[in-house]
User: Fold this.
Amino acid sequence: EGSPVPEPLQDLQSDGFGPAMLDCGMFMLDRKWTFLNHGAFGAACTPALRVAELWRRYAETQPLLCFDRVLLPHLVRIIRSLSSVLGTRSCNELVLVPNATQGLWVAIKSAAAVMKPGDVILTLNICYGSVKKMVSSVVQQHDLIHHELAVSVPPAPGASADSIAGDIVNLVEGALTRIDGVRLVLIDAITSNTALRLPVERLTRVCHAHGAAVIVDAAHALGQMEFSVAQWNADVVVGNFHKWWCSPRGSAFIWWNSSRGKESHSDGDFRLPPPRPLVISHGYGCGMLSEFSWDGNRDYSSWLALDATAKFWSVIGANKARAYCASLLRDAVALLVVRWSTRTFAPLEMCGLMALVELPMMMSCKRDEPAQPGDSEAGGPYTSADAKLVQDTLHYKYTIEVPVKCVGERLWVRISAALYNSLPEYERLAAATIEICQKFESGR
Assistant:
């Protein structure tokens, strides 16, 4: 049956990207801000927000009708449509969760539950901070071993994308060869702190060849890059809809590779069973969809608006949108590198729609003593406290929202290039940062 909520997207039209996205009301962003941090929590497109609100209102008109009779068929319909978006082999491999953090905890906790004491979990030092805490928790709980591999950051100046990717693959393969008992490897599709797009398919093949299962953190992937979870062939992939796909918050996914989980395998070849829900309720034992959907009453509106988000991308043209954002990122990086006389963290070929650009040398070059926040002397090494100082100054004084990262004792801005961004915004960032540097240098 059709949706019980009115269709507000019949006349949806796109008038272009950049400021036009805000002019026609596609996003609700406050235009007093220079918002260059889409990578943090995304920004939901207005059409999908409207559909979510309509579902919220509909649920209150007859709650039993909505939750007992209408909800499940529409969740099934939406999951089927999302299967083609993500490139799954079957919609039965896909479940919805509120966010990638919860999804990753489900995946890691489920994997650890079938590991034996002394088994090894392998991660990279550039993985997401909360994932490191998740691994620490299951290691203690199940008497496992954690090995963190040190990726060299920042990469050597002038290193090509192929050489950086190759070094990461070699690092992982070397560890798998050297360390006994590696059962699980965690890989980012696009790292959060360093905005690096990792060679997921190559890394997965290497891990499987050594008998290790793979969980992919794809929180930043959907909307930033084209991919197919089936082609990656990892054991579990977790990602967000609310971030770069611009859906209302509270929508993410777990994909379990059923072909890997069900295949017979040789001794020492570790496979992951279906992930288990955090909450046991009436859906338990009735398949993944029921287990993850019927875990207590909740607001399902963000999930029910996912098909509206899909229509949004269809109308604006997903390929055109990514091309605009990629071109904007190249132009923005070129502008900042020239204005600041600095460099990018890595070649743009290793980036999606985010990139790190080093702050001006007066704030980032080496000095003998550790820097203190607000210290007016030029140089480094710098700490996260210095990064916070710069980020807060941009926020409060210049109404510029952009993250400042401390990586390798240097300061970098991580810029995002979203549908609604335009080049003059990065010019404002360039000018404001130079002004901040001058004030720090003069001690004002």
Observations:
- The longest strand covers residues 182-188.
